[in-house]
Specification:
Elements lengths: L1 H9 L1 E5 L3 H11 L7 E6 L2 H15 L4 E4 L5 H11 L3 E4 L6 H11 L2 E4 L14 H4 L2 H6 L3 E4 L7 H13 L2 E11 L13 H8 L3 E5 L2 E5 L5 E6 L3 E8 L3 H8 L5 E7 L2 H12 L8 E3 L2 E3 L1 H8 L13 E12 L2 E12 H8 L3 H18 L7 E4 L5 H8 L6 E5 L1
Parallel strand pairs: 1-2, 1-4, 2-3, 4-5, 5-6, 6-17, 7-12
Antiparallel strand pairs: 7-15, 8-9, 8-12, 10-11, 11-12, 13-14, 15-16, 16-18
The chain binds NADPH dihydro-nicotinamide-adenine-dinucleotide phosphate (NDP).
Length: 404
C-alpha cells in the first residue's frame, strides 16, 4: 500500500506555459492516467489554463488543476512547486524562463524537462552553455534535467542517436530537414511563439564542418529538397540549437546542416517587417512609452495556438544521414509526417505544436518510468533512443526509415 501511494505521488506532473505546445502536452499527459495521475497546468495568463482544462475535460473526462504563475520569478515558482510537489516540471513557457524554472526545480528537489534552450531576452542568441552550467548542481542533488525534448530539437536528435547506435558504424554527414507544407489561411503568421520564431530566423546562418562553425548571412543559402510525402520545396539554411549538442554526441561527424522551408509570402512579409524595424528587440521611445518592436509585432500577429482551426496540409521533418556501415557508404532518411487537420481533431492543435508537445510528454513519461532517469543535465541524444522511438508512433508521431 505504501509503495502504491508513493508511486502515485511520484507521477504528479506540473506543466508551465499554456500556449500551443503546453496545450498539447496537457492533452497527451491526460491520455495516460497510469503515468500522469495528477496534472497541474500553470501559466502567466490564468484564463488560458482554464480553457485548456475545459478542452481536456471534454475530450478525456479528466480534471486538470490550474494555477497562475509568473515564471520569471524564482520565488513564485518555488512556492508553486512546493505546493504541487510534482515529480517533474515540464517547461513549455518560453526559452527566457528556462533558467528560473531550473533554479526553482533545484531549490525544491524536482526534475526538469523542456523543448528549447535558454535565450537571454535582451540578445537574440541561444546556446546550451547557460543550461549545461547546471550539470554539477543537478548531479549533486540527484535530479534529472532533460533539454530540448520537442521535435527539432528533440525527435531529430533521437533519430540521430538511433542512427548512431543501431544503423551506422560512423556518421559523417547530417542534414536536418524541416518542411511545413501546411496552409493556415493567414497572409503572415508564425507556427510557434512569434517572438522566438522571428529571432531565430533573422539570425546569421551557421553550420558545422570539419571541426568548426561556418557562418552565412541570414537566409542566404538555399536548396531544393525532396521532402517525404510533400515533394520538392526550397529550404533555407538556418542555425538550429540541436546542432550544438549533436556535434558533441555524434562521434566522427564531419558536417551538420539544418534546412527549413518558408513560403515566398512569409519571406516577403519578413523582409518588409525587418526593413521597417519591426523585428528589432531594442526598446524604442514612442509617445512617452518604451516599446520593443518585436514584442508589439507579436501582439498583432495570430496566436500560434489559434491557427489550428482550418489549418490544412502536412509537416515533414527528418534527418538525412550519410556514413559508413561494414565498410560500405550508406545514406538514410529518418522522418515523420504529421497532418495539421488530424492533430486538430485529436487535441485541438496545429501540427507544429503537436509535433513538439507529443515528444515532451513522452520524454517526461520516459523519466517517470525510470528509463531516462539519471542525475545531471542531458540532451536527449544522450539517452537510449529505442524505448522512446518504440512508443513515439503509438503516441501520435509514426516515423519511418528509408534508403536514399
Ligand atoms: P506560446 O507563445 O504559444 O506559449 C508560451 C506560453 O508561455 C504562453 O501561454 C505564455 O503566457 C507562457 N509564458 C510566457 N512567459 C511566461 C512567464 N513569465 N510566466 C508564465 N508563463 C509564461 O508558444 P509555443 O507554445 O508555441 O512555444 C512554447 C515553447 O516551445 C517555446 O519555448 C518554443 O521555443 C518551444 N518550441 C519548441 C519546438 C521544438 O520542436 N523543440 C517547436 C516549437 C516550439 P501568456 O499566454 O501570458 O503569453
Amino acid at each position: 500500500m505504501q509503495t502504491m501511494l508513493t508511486e502515485m505521488i511520484m507521477s504528479r506532473v506540473l506543466i508551465i506555459g499554456a500556449g500551443g505546445v503546453g496545450s498539447v502536452v496537457v492533452h497527451k499527459c491526460a491520455e495516460k492516467p497510469d503515468v500522469f495521475n495528477e496534472i497541474t497546468l500553470a501559466s502567466r495568463t490564468y484564463d488560458k489554463c482554464t480553457e485548456i482544462a475545459g478542452s481536456v475535460r471534454e475530450r478525456t473526462g479528466r480534471e486538470i488543476q490550474t494555477e497562475q504563475v509568473n515564471a520569471d520569478s524564482v520565488d513564485e515558482l518555488v512556492n508553486l512547486i512546493s505546493k504541487i510537489r510534482p515529480a517533474i516540471v515540464i517547461n513549455t513557457a518560453l526559452p527566457y524562463q528556462d533558467l528560473t524554472i531550473m533554479e526553482a526545480c533545484l531549490n525544491t528537489g524536482v526534475s526538469y524537462i523542456d523543448t528549447a534552450n535558454y535565450e537571454p531576452p535582451e540578445e537574440a542568441k541561444f546556446e546550451y552553455s547557460w543550461q549545461w552550467a547546471y550539470r554539477e548542481k543537478f548531479t549533486d542533488k540527484g535530479l534529472t534535467a532533460i533539454l530540448g525534448c520537442g521535435f527539432d530539437p528533440g525527435v531529430t536528435n533521437i533519430f540521430c542517436a538511433y542512427a548512431r547506435d543501431k544503423i551506422f558504424d560512423t556518421i559523417e554527414y547530417i542534414d536536418i530537414i524541416d518542411c511545413n507544407a501546411g496552409d493556415h489561411g493567414h497572409p503572415f503568421a508564425t507556427n510557434f511563439n512569434p517572438e522566438i520564431n522571428i529571432r531565430e530566423i533573422t539570425q546569421e546562418g551557421r553550420y558545422w564542418e570539419e571541426g568548426g562553425w561556418k557562418f552565412t548571412p541570414p537566409l542566404s543559402e538555399s536548396r531544393v529538397i525532396d521532402f517525404p510525402e510533400v515533394g520538392e520545396r526550397r529550404a533555407y539554411l538556418l542555425y538550429h540549437e540541436e546542432e550544438e549538442s549533436l556535434v558533441q554526441y555524434i562521434p566522427g561527424l564531419k558536417r551538420i546542416k539544418f534546412w527549413m522551408t518558408f513560403s515566398e509570402e512569409y519571406l516577403t512579409h519578413l523582409r518588409v517587417l525587418e526593413n521597417v524595424g519591426m523585428t528589432g528587440i531594442k526598446p524604442v521611445e514612442f509617445e512617452g512609452h518604451e516599446v520593443i518592436p518585436l514584442k508589439f509585432l507579436k501582439a498583432l500577429l495570430p496566436d500560434p495556438a489559434s491557427l489550428s482551426i482550418g489549418y490544412k496540409g502536412k509537416t515533414s521533418i527528418g534527418c538525412i544521414i550519410e556514413g559508413v556501415k561494414d565498410g560500405r557508404r550508406i545514406k538514410k532518411i529518418i522522418y515523420n509526417v504529421c497532418e495539421h487537420e488530424k492533430a486538430n481533431r485529436e487535441v485541438g492543435a496545429q501540427a507544429v505544436s503537436y509535433t513538439t508537445g507529443v515528444p515532451a510528454a513522452l520524454g517526461a513519461e520516459m523519466y517517470l518510468r525510470g528509463i531516462w532517469k539519471k542525475p545531471g543535465v542531458w540532451n536527449v541524444e544522450q539517452f537510449d533512443p529505442v524505448p522512446f522511438l518504440e512508443e513515439l508512433g503509438e503516441r501520435g508521431l509514426p516515423w519511418h526509415i528509408k534508403d536514399l
